[in-house]
Design goal:
30% helix; alpha+beta; 5 helices
Length: 194
Amino acid sequence: SGEPRRRHSEGAQEPMRRGPPGAGNSNALGVAYDPENPFLPILAGDASAYKVLETEHAVAFLDNMPLTRGHCLLIPKARVATVLDLDATGAAAVLRELPRLARALVEATGCQGMHVMQNNGAHAMQTVFHLHFHLVPRYSDGSITSFLASRGPRSIEELLRARAPLDSADAEALAAEVRACLERGGADEARSKL
């Protein structure tokens, strides 16, 4: 196989895994899809999530340990570990939702900036081995959640250290607002094509 090899003390070689342990085939980075990842129960409807968008090919929901208020994840329904595993058709189907979702988040949260991040492999800080895009609103005033209030702009590392569980009451209201913004945006896009 084309996987990197690791030597045991006896000199024998076995495949090196850089994705989750026990996962199947890996890609060029050595990252394998994790069939036990926490997104699969959400996709199957067996776990709850604050969904904001769902299409035939993609789902977006609020992160349960947000870096900031409004932090969403956009994931493909296809079972792929990284962007390396997504074909062009799948990429187009998922990524066409990214600008719509970003616009809806800006409208719903009033944020002044946004990170759009996607990590491939453990060396790039990927911890869930199902492809996902993070949309992380950034704020310049005290309108962010209490754990960030009055602290101003911060680095991603600082945000990671300060993250806290999603507040369910706020999450329900925010998810509803993002969905409403998406619906309004969808109607606006349809009208602009006429």
